[in-house]
């Protein structure tokens, strides 16, 4: 079959594509930024179409001569009003797929609580399914928390259990939910092509509580953990706590937490009848397999791969926090590198001059170098030389510049830029690394994250503007 996969850079889509290829299907993917497919072993074996779900022409081209399509996208992390955005995107996709004569759409949604109002996230997922089913022959799988190496649900359980010996948890952690292993999700998605449109199918393993999920993880890891359910912790407060303790940001933690405020138990009778080939593995086995993959370093995809849409990635993995920003610049790498090579010293850091000055002053008070070292030359760099409170650790013009922080920090930090040439333009990849030292380092990062996120976002934009020659630079305030 010729199959279109949307969401191919996401957690599920990134694992589905190679399995479709193994089964002999001709796979086409629709992505906003094809550069995000680089490095994936299957990237050269798929037909890549660039565009979004709100681009009618891109949708038309991507759906031409397609027999079946997978709808594996959502707007929860990239749109503030995600409910309207998700419905609008589903409508656009459904109309284009119907006009193209697509015979089957496979959609992965979420389980709904029985007899009570669902969360905004789950209600939006259900609405997307309604839209697709109204226009097209559809199989809509409704699943609970997906468990696998790198999945958001698994990572939330993992970090909470690893980092908190004693947990005061809301009473709703006792609610039953039906998790499902990623391998079983993929099995259902693959078999759907053979079975044809089946409407709504609820899937999942045997139910257990979120508390039991954490206790199972602790037992497999040989950890002693105490979980104390209390009736007073509000969902938003719990989500904020998850966002603080785990790498899951609040924008993802809130819907994850709200999704388990009520029991989420799947009625799997239709799934067993329609897909007898799939016998969902128990939660404990799914966790054991995920831990095994982590130990071997064989994690195919992670929840953060699709976080905040194209251009942004935040992940906390194996003691290293990475915050990555990607931006296309309509200029050659040499022009962008000239801007990078001139940062710091008397010129400053292009944006938030007062914040850089204040950080330098604080560093001096703590016994660090602050900004007083400046730089040797206004536009030239040498490996190993100092630039304010940074040191040049790697230099490969016009492709790479990495600075290592020498200010006083509860951990180690780097700021790196990579430039990838693309048809006379370039892709600028800016990465902030931080390896926290103990709990102090962990708290330091997350307490300052709102400021760092804004500063580094503005910085990569300012570098692009400077490379394009858009306006004079405003000098930072003078240093004391």
Automatic annotation (TrEMBL):
Highest taxon of source: Bacteria
GO cellular component: cytoplasm
Domain NAD(P)-binding: 7-135
Pfam families: DUF2867, NAD_binding_10
Any one Gene Ontology molecular-function term assigned to this protein's record: aldehyde dehydrogenase (NAD+) activity
PANTHER family in UniProt: NAD(P)-BINDING DOMAIN-CONTAINING PROTEIN-RELATED, PROTEIN YEEZ
Protein name: NAD-dependent epimerase
